[in-house]
Design goal:
The chain has 7 helices and 7 strands. By secondary structure, the protein is α/β, with parallel strands linked by helices. It is globular, with a radius of gyration of 29 Å.
Length: 299
């Protein structure tokens, strides 16, 4: 659904979704859509924290669960690395930091910014098992601030899917559309994207098409529709598919995609199986009768 439809509705212009899509096509406008992979998660044998999230990216209030990760920003002058801390409740970026190297300081700065902005206690900080998050310095900072570290398994993007989802948005809506000559130019663009667009203006379908800032404001004022907050729409495992109604089953039951199919297998005939010997589903093949004419009696 085009998010611009909600922008128009907010200023009093009522228009249908299909009309918005048609006008966008006529004007040559299209939603941005993805980039090549660069490794930013490197283990160094440090101590890992337990997984306190278990892929359940749901929070009932602010500062209950934060997710964090690192990505890279290509520039003509080399890579720039971005570390973020995201509040799962409102999808708001509460802490972020950029650096030219993947040292631990970049994640420490992002965590410090989040703590300074939110004044949170006993919050869960979930990340991957990168060396920056398993370092002694990061663990010490978490203990000092009363933060509970949590880490997913190794090499599984689903265990930190919400942070990966934000990076996918950043790539589609900023990085894939621009090229940065200098790292200073990239820093300014990322700052404007997070603080000028993503937090205050970017609409989320999981928030009832509200921005993170507006969602938090309405929640604080008690004006939020109870049905506006939906579970996070992030990448998940494909082995179990929710919402499938099986024959004789219940609505909302899950379907295990790894289970064997209940449909009986049929042997197919092909060139290696003597196609002429295959029988049709209606029964054995009948031999065609010869097309003969009855003899005419002679007068």
């Amino acid at each position: 659904m085009p998010r611009i439809q909600f922008d128009l509705a907010e200023v009093g212009i009522r228009v249908g979704r299909k009309r918005v899509a048609r006008l966008m096509r006529a004007a040559g406008l299209a939603g941005v859509s993805r980039r090549k992979f660069v490794t930013t998660t490197v283990r160094d044998g440090g101590r890992q924290a337990p997984d306190l999230v278990d892929r359940k990216f749901v929070a009932e209030r602010q500062n209950m669960l934060w997710v964090a990760d690192i990505t890279y920003i290509p520039t003509w002058a080399g890579f720039l690395y971005l570390a973020v801390v995201l509040d799962v409740f409102s999808r708001r970026i509460v802490g972020w930091s950029m650096a030219t190297t993947l040292h631990t300081q970049v994640v420490l700065d992002a965590l410090s910014m989040a703590l300074w902005q939110r004044r949170a206690k006993d919050v869960i900080h979930h990340s991957d098992q990168g060396s920056q998050y398993t370092s002694i310095e990061f663990g010490k900072r978490c203990r000092e601030a009363g933060v509970r570290p949590s880490m997913g398994s190794v090499g599984d993007a689903y265990d930190n899917a919400m942070a990966e989802s934000f990076f996918a948005t950043l790539e589609c809506e900023l990085l894939d559309r621009r090229r940065f000559r200098t790292q200073a130019e990239a820093r300014m663009a990322v700052f404007e994207f997070i603080e000028g667009f993503y937090n205050p203006r970017r609409r989320h379908s999981s928030l009832g098409y509200l921005s993170p800032v507006e969602f938090e404001r309405q929640q604080a004022e008690g004006a939020l529709d109870p049905g506006a907050h939906h579970p996070a729409a992030v990448l998940g495992t494909v082995k179990v598919r929710p919402g499938v109604v099986a024959i004789g089953g219940k609505v909302g039951a899950t379907a295990d995609l790894d289970r064997p199919c209940a449909r009986p297998l049929h042997k197919r005939a092909g060139r290696d199986e003597k196609m002429l010997s295959a029988e049709p589903k209606d029964g054995p093949r009948k031999q065609p009768k010869e097309d003969t004419l009855p003899p005419n009696p002679l007068p």
